[in-house]
Specification:
The complex is a heterodimer. Chain A is α/β, with parallel strands linked by helices. Chain A has ten helices and twelve strands. In chain A, the strands form three sheets. A five-stranded parallel beta sheet of chain A has the order 2-1-3-4-5, with helices on both faces. A five-stranded mixed beta sheet of chain A has the order 7-9-10-12-11, covered by helices on one side. A two-stranded antiparallel ribbon of chain A has the order 6-8. Chain B is of the alpha/beta class. In chain B, strands 2-1-3-4-5 form a five-stranded parallel beta sheet, sandwiched between helices. In chain B, helix 3 (63-72) links the parallel strand 3 (51-55) and strand 4 (82-86). The chains are: A alpha/beta, B alpha/beta. At the A-B interface, helix 6 and helix 7 of A face helix 1 of B.
């Protein structure tokens, strides 16, 4: 039930208004002066305030101004015995919804209250919708990826049931094909994740917290994360990063994402039994991290494009290597978000080396 | 005969419910489902489940969180273990996490969709033992 506050220094007005309003079923409060009125507005948060313009102490105009600060959606109706066009206009300027000159009849009061409350209802609904729209916009990337990932997750979940033999035996040939389907869906999920990472990096959602970071320990963490992948291809991972290196200025999670992509590429595009060497060193104001592999290398013609979105090196050697074509563009975006850069050297048949150049963390800089 | 362990799945996605239900039923759990936040709340009191599988993002992005919050602030219901599930995690763009929203989000465990059958059963068994 709507809550109405009557602020008037004349007791007879307060009483007569209250009587009418209570009869209508409104919860009604009264205040004899502006000061008490404002206090009650803060306490009971009324939907509508009837306020007399001319009162001793804090006057009606003052109350109107303050109401707006407390809650701009509270409807204020001005009542006064000295109704002039000027005071009406001025109170409207201060945010009053309407004006009721004394003396007024109970019907006039009822009508203006009813309209005022309708207006408040609409305003509140609009505010809720605006809020919801804002939230939708803020969460747009999350929403889109949720919509894209959910059906694929469902498909994978059914595969878990079917391939797990939970709903009956699956013939070998069927199982083989379904396994392939599952792999393709996995790749699609990976693509969505990469695209999402890319979008979030572009939106500045990923690289945002810069702090002094020990690059050796980040590299160690990343290496232990990709080690299972290396072991499957019998690739040795070597690290050469002195523990006393100067700290870099970076965002931890995105740097890990960057090195994971680079080392994982070094493993994927390697020969069986090959190695990936990860080196970190200081160079002037920078820390340089080198990731070298003993893999298939990249032909000169392709080098300018490898950081482009969705570009993939196509040759008979890469045909069976899965990937989304976004890994290196993510790496480049992360390096750039750190005011750093990335370079590559490659020799076909011998391997590639990627150089990530990051800034040292300087005290007092940010 | 020992009373069957009852699991409530709250998820607005009927396919996920169907697949997950089949996995759980294969291990003789009794499974009931609710397809939105309100039905979820109703079934928690009417079915008295031993464990709840809760989807985080239903109709609204935070339906699961709201429900979880209610649950974990109810003296009667807060002892029911909650395994939260979503296709989106913090890493893939969800802005909430138990780390940053610990007080708001108090699920007992968390897993990403799709979930491997073995992984799901293991987590469920672990939560039920607590």
């Amino acid at each position: 039930m709507a809550n109405i506050l009557v602020i008037d220094d004349e007791e007879v007005i307060r009483d007569s208004c209250s009587q009418v309003l209570i009869k209508e079923g409104y919860q009604t409060e009264t205040a004899g002066d502006g000061e008490t009125g404002l206090q009650k507005i803060r306490e009971v948060k009324p939907d509508l305030v009837l306020v007399d313009l001319k009162m001793p102490g804090v006057c009606g105009m003052e109350v109107l101004k303050k109401i707006r600060d407390i809650d701009p959606n509270i409807i204020a109706v001005v009542i006064t015995g000295f109704a002039t066009i000027d005071s009406a206009v001025e109170s409207m300027k201060e945010g009053a919804y309407d004006f009721l000159p004394k003396p007024f009849t109970p019907d006039e009061l009822r009508l203006i209250i009813k309209r005022g409350l309708e207006k408040r209802k609409l305003a509140l609904e609009a505010a809720t919708l605006r809020e919801e729209k804002k939230r939708m916009e803020e969460n747009f990337i999350t929403m889109v990826s949720h919509e894209l990932r959910t059906p694929l997750a469902d498909i994978q979940q059914y595969f878990e049931v079917i391939l797990g033999g939970i709903v009956g035996e699956v013939a070998i040939k069927q199982k083989e094909m379904l396994e392939r389907v599952r792999e393709r869906i996995d790749a699609l999920l990976k693509l969505i994740n990469d695209w999402l990472d890319m979008t979030r990096i572009k939106a500045g959602e990923v690289v945002k917290k810069f702090e002094p970071l020990d690059i050796s320990s980040i590299l160690e963490d990343t290496i232990s994360f990709v080690r299972p992948q290396a072991e499957m291809k019998k690739i040795t991972l070597e690290i050469d990063a002195p523990a006393n290196l100067k700290k870099v200025k970076g965002d931890k999670e995105s740097l890990k994402m960057m090195f994971t992509n680079l080392i994982s590429n070094g493993i994927k595009f390697n020969r069986e039994g090959g190695s990936v060497l990860i080196k970190a060193k200081e160079q002037d104001d920078h820390i340089v991290i080198e990731i070298s592999d003993t893999g298939i290398g990249i032909i000169k013609e392709d080098l300018p494009f490898i950081f482009d979105e969705f570009f993939r090196v196509k040759s008979n050697k890469t045909r069976n290597i899965t990937g989304t074509g976004l890994g290196l563009s993510i790496v480049k975006k992360i390096a750039e978000a750190h005011s750093g850069s990335i370079k590559v050297k490659s020799e076909l048949g011998k391997g590639s080396t990627f150089f990530v150049i990051l800034q040292k963390f300087e005290k007092g800089s940010n | 005969m020992e009373k069957m362990v009852k699991i409530l799945i709250i998820d607005d996605d009927p396919d996920f419910v169907e697949a997950t239900k089949t996995i759980l039923e294969s291990k003789s759990y009794e499974v009931v489902a609710a397809y939105d936040k309100n039905e979820g709340m109703e079934k928690i009191s009417s079915e008295k489940p031993d464990l709840i599988l809760l989807d985080i993002m239903m109709k609204k992005i935070d339906d699961g969180f709201t429900l979880c919050y209610k649950l974990k602030h109810d003296p009667e219901l807060k002892k029911i273990p909650v395994l939260a599930i979503s296709a989106i995690t913090e890493e893939t763009g969800l802005k909430f996490s138990s780390e940053t929203d610990g007080e708001y989000f108090e699920a007992d465990d968390y897993v990403e969709k799709p979930v491997k059958a073995d992984d799901l059963l293991e987590r469920v068994a672990k939560l039920l033992k607590k």
